[in-house]
What does this fold into?
Amino acid sequence: MSERELRVLALAKYGELAASSRQRMVQYRQPLETQGILLKFAPLLSNEYVKSISAERGMHGWSVLQGYFRRVRQLLSLQNFDVAWVQCDLLPYVPGFLERPLLPNTIPIVYDCDDAIFHTYNLHKNPLVRRVLGRKLEPLLRRAKAATCGNDYLKAYAEQYCPNSAVVPTVVDTQIYRSRDTLSPERPARVTVGWIGSPSTWAYVKPLIPILRDLQAKNEISFRAVGVGANSRTIDQFEFADWTLNTEIKDIQQFDIGIMPLTDDPWSRGKCGYKLIQYMACGLPVIASPVGVNSKIVRHGENGFLASTEREWAQALATLIANPDLRARMGAAGRALVEKEYSQHSQLPRIAEILRSVAA
It folds into this structure.
């Protein structure tokens, strides 16, 4: 093994079908290898678990328990690596002081998060969970030599315990995320407003359903939602599609406008705007709630619109629906922003530098 090679164990929470694991860790595996950094991906919970969430079906407790046993084995193998790259937390709902003995003191840790996972514990509805686990992540963060956080909200939490914390946004590979217009110039007559997500995030769209139904009833739009669970497909007028990794980009390229509504709450402030980055990478104008990092990604009037009230949402939709030239200009501006700040190419050097610096 050459002196430049660095062995990194990526301890993710989910298998690579989960966007958080795929975009924060897995997509860097091959590019890092070209720089002498060998990344082994080691999830806690399998792709089958991710599929069960998407299908809105329960997962057998034994499968989850197997994941915990697998994680303990992964931790026992850490001596074979130079760096541990930990996503979210090591063992969900296990107190932090019980996790820490499983981490060898000789192995430096980089902590990564793209969700406000700490609110799972410190804002839990059960007061016992808040009391026992409210500070669960602190031992892990104090042990980490660096933290990579998806936005400023997450960084503000992490740097209380890990001063060497930095914002590293969630990104996409712009070599495979291509502008829709360069691939299929012929478009349907009606404008397609689209959303991509999961059964849990579909709740954010529900307040907009009356506006979307009204626009569709007037024959002004088609609304297409990707990733909504079967139990939530209750509106006959809307188009629904299952999410798959192989069709994800193609589905987004069928949209003319991408939307990302959110409620303004602590959990939403920790989100990293992944939907917006996907839309923009495909050359789409966007409309989003001005919550958390959305207000940074969306430059109002330049690459999309920020909308808080139903009236603002209706006005933003009407403006983009009526003006194809504006959609094209905003889509081009969004694509340029992603290439500059939210692409794999733009963030790869930072990831490599952080991993090497903690191992030095």
